[in-house]
Design brief:
Blueprint: H1 2-7, H2 9-32, E1 39-40, H3 43-51, E2 55-61, E3 64-69, E4 80-83, H4 91-98, E5 101-105, H5 113-121, H6 125-148, E6 155-157, H7 174-188, H8 190-196, E7 203-207, H9 214-225, E8 228-233, H10 234-237, H11 244-258, E9 262-267, H12 270-273, H13 283-301, E10 309-315, E11 333-336, H14 342-353, H15 364-369, H16 376-392, H17 400-414, H18 423-442, E12 449-453, E13 464-467, H19 478-499, H20 507-522, H21 557-584, H22 586-599, E14 601-603, H23 604-612
Parallel strand pairs: 1-4, 2-5, 7-10, 7-11, 8-9, 9-10
Antiparallel strand pairs: 2-3, 3-4, 6-8, 12-13, 12-14
The protein binds adenosine-5'-diphosphate and zinc ion (ZN).
Residues 432, 436, 491, 506, 509 line the site of zinc ion (ZN).
């Protein structure tokens, strides 16, 4: 017994000291770190309390004075209050007179006189102690940083360690899943492919607007294949010091190879992969280029027989990427991950709705209808917002009303980023796109349409039609071009017929139609009036290095006028044709547009069946 007692004396002392430190920290905490929820009182009230000798202690910072009153009545602790610091040179003296403890001064150097007075007046020991503490912390964190220096900051999700994500967690992007399924097969069973001599893809580019689930898909591929997942954002490569980006890339691949088969996911690839032709050269560009080169080297480095490392990368702007990235053996596959259409949104909503308690009045279809233009992340956010609203009112289930309100909130947040169509806009866009499709279907040389959509795109297009891939044609005759122009004007023609007025939505179409008509006249010699002359100069490199494509031969005023007249006539004739076609097919136009408003996308056989019903004008 006695021995035990003796040996425990030292630890007791230690514990005592620690307790003392902890206790003083706890006591000081409210003063050092003034919490915003402290009741704020006017300065005059504070002064009154000081004068009345009711203040026990004061803590001062540059923008807040926190003070604790002496305990009153039975309470053991006095109330802590805060007040704005007012320039008051007499305060230090007053505090001293009343014997108030001034416990701490918050760091930032004093900007005004009275704080300076206070500073010099107070025993600076606390500051010294605090300063030491601060320096030590800083040293520590610097230590850690320099250790991590060069090391890649990739977050690693090793299979089985974190929550496994599979394709079931990603909804509404069926096509992308089908394409990525193959990658899963590669990862699961590389031998099966290499035995035949097939080259396993190294890089896959996921292309689409933010929040559409690209990261989620990449994780799901790893999850489905049961392999490790390394993720890093390309913007993290290029920061801090020159040269670290390349080192980080090397490091990342080093780590990944050890865990192979695995997936490396690089988000925001354009941060390092921007085309080298674009932009001026500067220090940061050098850094980016080095990093990019390292990435290319690493990707070229692993070949047949090597460990299976597949790099998935995400970007919103594939057109801005350096061509070197897209060469065979690098990111030679692209998978489009677009904003979901009605069905897709419904599926995503179903995924997230499972996680909250829904009321009986919930109609997910209605919600999907009202959220055209939302990406997956927006929908996830929407469900959460709705649940929060319900919780705030202490209800146990989420109601349709909550969703209505949440949609409005999310839309307000989204409006800055992308477009969300109102019902009215949706209707106009639907008729517009169907107009294109119908005219294109009826004109022999018109653009054949494979898909029409009124899901807004990130690029600013409200709706769009996807042209059918045509057999490669290098020669178009005059009639073909006229038909193409008519197709371009079909959108505007539909708006004019149905709504009796046109909107700004057709400006891009008009631009393209006019350009085409102008080329017919000035480059292709297709105008009888102007004859087979090239009025524009062949695009040559002039001394500035610019393409001289827009240069015109010196024209007489008369010729210039004649060109304008001809161009105008071609466009107007085509427009008349488009109008006529749509008038004849008005019922069909109505029918398809109504359907499009419901489903937001019409494509494939369904679309072709509709288009087969068009009646040509002469009949
Ligand atoms: P991206 O990488 O395309 O910017 P993320 O994959 O980071 O988008 O998506 C952010 C979040 O939004 C995901 O974690 C997920 O919760 C949700 N989300 C986005 N798209 C989908 C989808 N298609 N299905 C289910 N959830 C999605
Ligand atoms: Zn259009």
């Amino acid at each position: 017994m006695t021995i035990k007692k003796k040996s425990s004396q030292l630890p007791f002392k230690k514990i005592g000291i620690s307790l003392l430190i902890i206790a003083s920290l706890v006591l000081l905490y409210p003063l050092v770190r003034p919490r915003p929820q402290l009741r704020r009182v006017p300065y005059s009230f504070f002064l009154l309390q000081v004068k009345a000798g009711k203040v026990e202690s004061v803590g001062v910072s540059e923008n807040l004075i926190v003070f604790q009153l002496k305990p009153e009545g039975n309470s053991k602790q006095g109330v802590v209050l805060s007040t704005p610091p007012i320039e008051d040179l007499e305060l230090p003296e007053r505090l001293e007179k009343q014997g108030v403890k001034v416990q701490f001064i918050y760091t930032p150097p004093p900007k005004n006189k009275w704080l300076g007075t206070l500073l010099s007046w107070i025993v600076p020991s606390l500051i010294v102690v605090g300063g030491f503490q601060y320096l030590r912390n800083r040293e520590n964190s610097q230590d850690k940083q320099s250790l991590a220096f060069g090391k890649s900051k990739a977050k690693v999700y090793i299979e089985g360690q974190s929550e496994k994500i599979t394709f079931a967690d990603v909804a509404g992007v069926e096509e992308a899943k089908v394409e990525l399924q193959e990658i899963v097969e590669f990862l699961k069973n590389p031998d099966r492919f290499t035995q035949i001599g097939a080259r396993i893809p190294k890089g896959v580019l996921l292309v689409g607007p933010p929040g559409t689930g690209k990261t989620l898909l990449a994780k799901a591929v790893a999850g489905e294949a049961g392999v490790s997942f390394f993720s890093i954002s390309a913007s993290e490569f290029v920061e801090l010091f020159v040269g670290t980006g390349a080192a980080r890339v090397r490091d990342l691949f080093e780590q990944a190879k050890q865990k192979a088969p695995c997936i490396i996911f690089i988000d925001e690839l354009d941060a390092i992969g921007k085309s080298r032709n674009s932009g001026a050269t500067s220090g940061s560009n050098d850094e980016r280029e080095q990093t990019l080169n390292q990435l290319l080297t690493e990707m070229d480095g692993f070949g047949v027989g090597d460990a299976t490392v597949i790099v998935l990368a995400a970007t919103n702007r594939p057109e801005a990427l350096d061509a070197a990235l897209l060469r065979p053996g690098r990111f030679d596959r692209q998978v489009l991950v677009d904003r979901p259409d009605f069905d897709g949104r419904l599926k995503i909503l179903e995924v997230y709705a499972r996680k909250v308690k829904l009321g009986e009045d919930i109609n997910l279809k209605e919600i999907a209808t009202q959220t055209s233009g939302f990406a997956g992340a927006d929908l996830a956010n929407l469900v959460n917002e709705a649940a929060l609203l319900a919780a705030r009112e202490r209800r146990t289930t989420v109601s349709q009303r909550d969703f209505k309100e949440a949609i409005e909130r999310v839309i307000i947040g989204l409006e800055r980023k992308s477009r969300v169509l109102s019902e009215k806009e949706k209707k106009i866009v639907a008729y517009h796109e169907v107009g294109h499709a119908l005219v294109g279907a009826l004109m022999p040389g018109g653009t054949k349409v494979a898909k029409i959509s009124i899901v807004p795109r990130g690029s600013g297009a409200l709706g769009y039609m996807l042209a059918m891939p045509e057999e490669d044609r290098f020669l178009l005759d005059e009639a073909d071009l006229r038909d193409k122009i008519a197709t371009l004007l079909g959108g505007r023609a539909a708006e004019a017929i149905i709504f009796g007025k046109v909107t700004t939505g057709a400006s891009d179409d008009l631009q393209r139609a006019t350009n085409l008509a102008e080329r017919m006249v000035t480059s292709y010699g297709m105008s009888r009036v102007l004859g087979p002359l090239a009025y524009d100069r062949a695009p040559t490199n002039n001394f500035l290095g610019n393409e001289g494509g827009n240069l015109r031969r010196a024209l007489s005023e008369k010729t210039a006028e004649a060109i304008d007249v001809e161009v105008k006539e071609i466009v107007e004739r085509a427009y008349e044709q488009a109008l006529e076609i749509l008038k004849v097919n008005r019922e069909l136009l109505e029918e398809i547009a109504q359907q499009l408003m419901k489903t937001e996308v019409i494509e494939g056989e369904a679309l072709q069946t509709y288009l087969a019903r068009t009646r040509s004008v002469s009949q």
